[in-house]
């Protein structure tokens, strides 16, 4: 069998190296968040970059037991008391396109928008107006804009302020704000939601679009594990009683 | 349906609170590691506690593509190119009793050993000797001791030094070291492995045994996500060719 | 890398053989249920055995959207619209000790009981009385007995009648009935539930205890896939609104 | 909370009904395969339809330990000895677009091709030629055609013969054969692979495209469970040693 190639981690009997750094040095001098950055980008972040990634991971870490990731994890924990990892994995599986996955679509849109602006010599404002117009023509929802509960997500404002104050905000933040303005002109006033805000900042931190989704997963796993522990320590097995209405065929006989 | 109770996170239209702290304050003033501690213990850690939890999360974050969690995630990523969360979840599922799960068993052993010492007025040394003797009588392996590759895991030494230097080491570290000495006397020289070291320190940080397993999962998810990205960006779909030998029944006819 | 050994399936450019049978012969002359039996036992079942395995797989195939396996699958499907396999996998993960897993415990109890009877020359009735007495002494629940809804599970009666009428019922069915009688004497009247009934019949069909759990999974996956499709075709994304009560710490400031 | 609607299964204290049929009647008079058909289509299949669905489920049930679904399940089983469901779920997760998922794409192509033919009054041959030409223009691979090992998949021939002999073959089989002929003219001789064959027959049996993927999962879960059992009964924990080559950065110091 062909050996598997990797540029991430290697080890011998005496040491483990992550992206070239001895893991014991990282343990003594780095934080977990810096290691997450290192694993995905191959370099340690500057202090300002670390602060932004911490803010993103904290911002998505938990949203209560009714979020699909937490609810799926709790129901699995309720039927499966001996396998904590099964419950956590079910929580990870709930993070699809409709829950947390908007970051992937949104980062892709930012990448495309910035690329179009560069290629065609447009301003980011012009590229954003075009993105909104295209979405309207094709009747697509714009990722990163709008929220079913918050009119303005408090996490968005904080992330953008931090990104500006620390000199991290660049094309990603600028494009998302231009997009919001263009949406305001062409559709209606819509807030930048947490997916949009973290996509903008992750783009400016140099992450690939797919990694946006993975960062959401890393952050939310922290909350899912806490939800699973609370289910195990406070609740009985098989406790969930979802009300059901049956509207299928009436009783019938087999021939 | 009965509402679900939670003491972890609550939100309204304007704010999200984790264990009572406004998430935007945490984003600006805390780190992700502090938030992980907060989610599981309900309080923010002291600076020294944070340093130890960071070291633990970093220490388990990745061990290369051949660890079961990474290998399972990569094989799923190889057959399933559109669902990153499916690959990460498969990695989580590989973290069972034989891979990463020793922390749970080891923390339980430490809890039991310390409890026995307190109840019966024994020293931790006496309790550890009894634990070794019991394991030998019942022909059980001692969790947290011994390693298939490293004679002394470099991460163990660093964790214990950090725990002592920062005043975090207490009964957990003391018990594991007593256990190693007792094993040395009764069995043979055996190193404390990474599961044993992180169990000792997590016990001293106040975590429940089940949470030991979950902390391992939180840390390793960081590495698994990087392994999945590397698979996607460097390798072709369905590339894995595991050599197989068939030793079942020869071809036969149905009657 | 060492080749992986297998005695199940082999293939070359022209053919695939399952346990020695050409898969195209199986496709033309066997049923899926016979193939499940073949995969797990290495031989094709007699007609009577096949009828019982069909009855078991049908009997566990679905129990509505509120069963943990279906509910977990639906919540994942609600957050993750693009990955059907993620939703099905979450359903599989919910099948733990408390949901469907009783079959594993129950088959193990039957194995142990029959082995004790043989070794010590007891009748199955005596072995069953001892199993009930032991469970009471150790304050353990008896697997396979009792049900939170049905006083007598209709599927139990049908499985046992079929097993007797087709000459499949042997020590497994006899032991479970002896256990029920012993429980009636020593505890109170308790029905044999579906886990108990299928455990008894699976034992008599020659399956190992762990396989009992896997047969439950194979059967229920059929229902979970139908639940996932219904979620996708009838419901909107992110539709689940579980009511939540927060009883954690009140808002507090970071120092 | 809004009750969940379902038209699949309902139960009261005395009975369980699947699509209106008492489950105990199904257990006595139906097969598991008929129940799978019933769960997904709301009616019991004719004898000929049942034979084809059995053949499909058998045809995909196992392909040895090196298929991604089996390999992922075995690696999880190797690290996680106590949770059979975790290993099976990992196997399910490997069934993505590149492994087993072609059925979904292929059924969608058949649906589209037949719809185009009807709408524009074309023959299926003309619609197939257009589908091949479009794929070439857009440099897309055609799903259901071509195979990396078999020049002609033996399962394809058997499925099509059975479908014709039993009067099940209709537009789906006709379209796939027209597609193969058009590909032969415009590209080169390419076999219809198992994904293409089962897609054609599943279409003719009245299944929706997404269900094609789910039928593959239901069938393959049978094989995955057998692979997991073989791993548990024949192999040691943590046995997999994948060879690795590291080509990342050399050791470096933290500043």
Task: Outline the structure in words.
4 copies of one chain form a homotetramer. The first copy, chain A, is mainly alpha-helical. In chain A, about 60% of the residues lie in helices and about 5% in strands. Chain A contains 11 helices and 5 strands, in the order ββββαααααααααααβ. The first copy, chain A, has helices spanning about 25-30, 30-40, 45-60, 70-80, 85-95, 100-120, 125-135, 155-165, 170-185, 195-205, 210-235; strands at about 5, 10, 15-20, 20, 245. Chain A has a 3-stranded antiparallel beta sheet. In chain A, α3 runs antiparallel to α10, α6 (about 100-120) packs across α7 and α6 (about 100-120) packs across α10 (about 195-205). The longest helix of chain A has 26 residues, at about 210-235. The termini of chain A are far apart. The mean pLDDT of chain A is about 95. The interface between A and B is large, with 83 and 83 residues. β5 of chain A pairs parallel with β1 (about 5) of chain D.
Helix content of chain A: 55-70%
| Largest interface: chains, residues each | A-B, 83 and 83 residues
What's the quaternary structure here?
A: homotetramer
According to DSSP, the number of beta strands of chain A is: 5
Secondary structure tally, helices of chain A: 11
Any low-confidence stretches of chain A, pLDDT <50, length ≥5?
A: none
General form of chain A: globular
β-strand amount of chain A: 5-15%
Structural class of chain A: mainly alpha
Biggest sheet strand order of chain A reads 2-3-4
User: Radius of gyration of chain A, rounded?
Assistant: 22 Å
Distance N to C terminus of chain A: 56 Å
Largest sheet of chain A: 3 strands, antiparallel
Q: Give the topology string of chain A: H per helix, E per strand.
A: EEEEHHHHHHHHHHHE
Average pLDDT rating of chain A: 94
């Amino acid at each position: 069998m062909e050996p598997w190639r990797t540029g991430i981690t290697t080890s011998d009997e005496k040491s483990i190296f992550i992206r070239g750094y001895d893991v014991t040095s990282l343990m003594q001098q780095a934080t977990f968040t810096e290691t997450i950055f290192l694993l995905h980008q191959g370099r340690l972040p500057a202090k300002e970059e670390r602060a932004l990634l911490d803010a993103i991971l904290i911002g998505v870490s938990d949203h209560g037991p009714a979020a699909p990731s937490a609810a799926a994890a709790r129901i699995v924990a309720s039927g499966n008391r001996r396998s904590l990892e099964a419950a956590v994995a079910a929580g990870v599986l709930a993070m699809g396109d409709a829950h947390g996955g908007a970051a992937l679509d949104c980062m892709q849109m930012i990448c495309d928008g910035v690329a179009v602006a560069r290629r065609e010599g447009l301003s980011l404002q012009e590229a954003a107006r075009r993105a909104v117009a295209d979405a309207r023509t094709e009747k697509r929802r714009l990722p990163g804009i709008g929220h079913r509960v918050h009119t303005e997500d408090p996490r968005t404002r904080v992330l953008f302020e931090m990104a500006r104050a620390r000199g991290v905000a660049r094309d990603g933040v600028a494009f998302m704000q231009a997009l919001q303005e263009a949406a305001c002109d062409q559709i209606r006033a819509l807030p930048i939601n947490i997916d949009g805000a973290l996509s903008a900042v992750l783009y400016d931190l140099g992450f690939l679009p797919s990694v946006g989704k993975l960062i959401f997963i890393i952050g939310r796993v922290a909350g899912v594990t806490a939800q699973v522990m609370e289910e195990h320590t406070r609740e009985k097995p098989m406790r969930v009683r979802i009300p059901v209405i049956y509207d299928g065929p009436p009783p019938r006989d087999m021939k």
